[in-house]
């Protein structure tokens, strides 16, 4: 039993809790700096030649599960350990303190009063009247009173002792919710052009619901810089119900445990005509070599597939810039400009189709996380409340009243109230 007690004391020590919080904070920093959930080749290519902190290459990074920090074995172990430490601390320290605050302590002898942090001895002639005034005043100011044989015990703010327990409980629930969400959550990032949809499947691979993009708009300032982008989406349930919603940056859609964010935008395709041909919708792809927001596609100018040209665009407004195969700029075309000759072919830009970058997250731990925030907030507010206790003993032989009190964290506040109690007993 002694060894078990020593282990529990070690688990619930403040030093261990601080160390665990420090390790968790460092782990979260690593998870923020190192890209998460990428392919193994990504880490080999990026960290074998340029090791993280100069010592951690791709192989080491994958071995220590730095590619998925928040679901790694060691990170979950840290969270579990911290949860155990908080639970042990609550049961071994905070619950006894709460129980002590709720229990009435009956001081029967004057010497017990005089040993308190704040105490006073008062000479009185009419003990019953002065004690009655004191009791009325205490009740009026929210004190709970217990009277036994001329002795008075009073307390205020005992509920404050519940605060640390609620904070510990909230932190444990927060870690459970975050862990459950990390292990069972789902994140899908998809670029959709208007008219396209995402099908979400359940665990049995059956379609649960679909999200269809109806319209996508990009709002720009007079200088052409993007200010906001909005998507009009239809959420189609399995039973056929359809809900029409608008989402934009900082204004996501929340639907039955799913959260749909407006995360990005891009260019899906360029519609062109070549030599009076039918309208051709040519898909584009990002070209990071030309800049952060540059998309393009390569098309041949001859039926044989030879002599290709590169069409690039950096805005849904245009223009489309056309380059030769050697990188020489040939021409710049705006939407609905008349067809212009490019290497013996006449090309016309019909439209540029933007694409909406949608981020879909399903986190089943969110209700637990939000509940934990509420519990921690309530616990924090309760912790502000100081617990104050007061005792009064009347000694009939010498006509003396002994009064004393203590407080767990606001002894100065009790000391400021004490003169009022003395005045009530003297008058």
Kindly summarize this structure in a few lines:
The protein is built from ten helices and 20 strands.
Word description of this protein:
With 427 residues, the chain is α+β, with helices and mostly antiparallel strands. The protein folds into 4 domains: 2-98, no CATH class; 104-157 and 386-426, 2-Layer Sandwich (TATA-Binding Protein); 186-266 and 358-376, no CATH class; 267-353, no CATH class. 35% of the residues lie in helices and 34% in strands. Strands 4, 9, 10, 11, 17 and 18 form a 6-stranded antiparallel sheet that branches. A hairpin with an 8-residue loop joins strand 12 and strand 13. Helix 2 packs antiparallel against helix 5 (73-102) and helix 5 runs antiparallel to helix 8. The longest helix has 30 residues, at 73-102.
Topology at a glance:
Blueprint: H1 2-11, H2 14-33, H3 40-47, H4 58-63, H5 73-102, H6 110-114, E1 118-123, H7 127-140, E2 144-148, E3 151-156, H8 162-184, E4 186-192, E5 197-201, E6 207-220, E7 226-237, E8 242-248, E9 253-255, E10 258-274, E11 280-283, E12 285-286, E13 295-300, E14 308-313, E15 320-323, E16 329-333, E17 340-342, E18 345-362, H9 366-384, E19 388-395, E20 400-407, H10 411-426
Antiparallel strand pairs: 1-20, 2-3, 3-19, 4-18, 5-6, 6-7, 7-8, 9-10, 10-11, 10-18, 12-13, 13-14, 14-15, 15-16, 17-18, 19-20
Outline type: elongated
**Could you say how many structural domains there are in total?**
4
State the low-pLDDT regions, or none. Answer: none
Gap between N and C termini? 56 Å
Helix/sheet category: alpha+beta
Biggest sheet overview: 6 strands, antiparallel
- What letter string, H or E per element, gives the SSE order? HHHHHHEHEEHEEEEEEEEEEEEEEEHEEH
Radius of gyration over all CA atoms, rounded: 36 Å
Mean pLDDT: 83
Number of strands: 20
Q: Estimate the helix proportion, in percent.
A: 25-40%
| Tally of DSSP helical segments | 10
Strand content: 25-35%
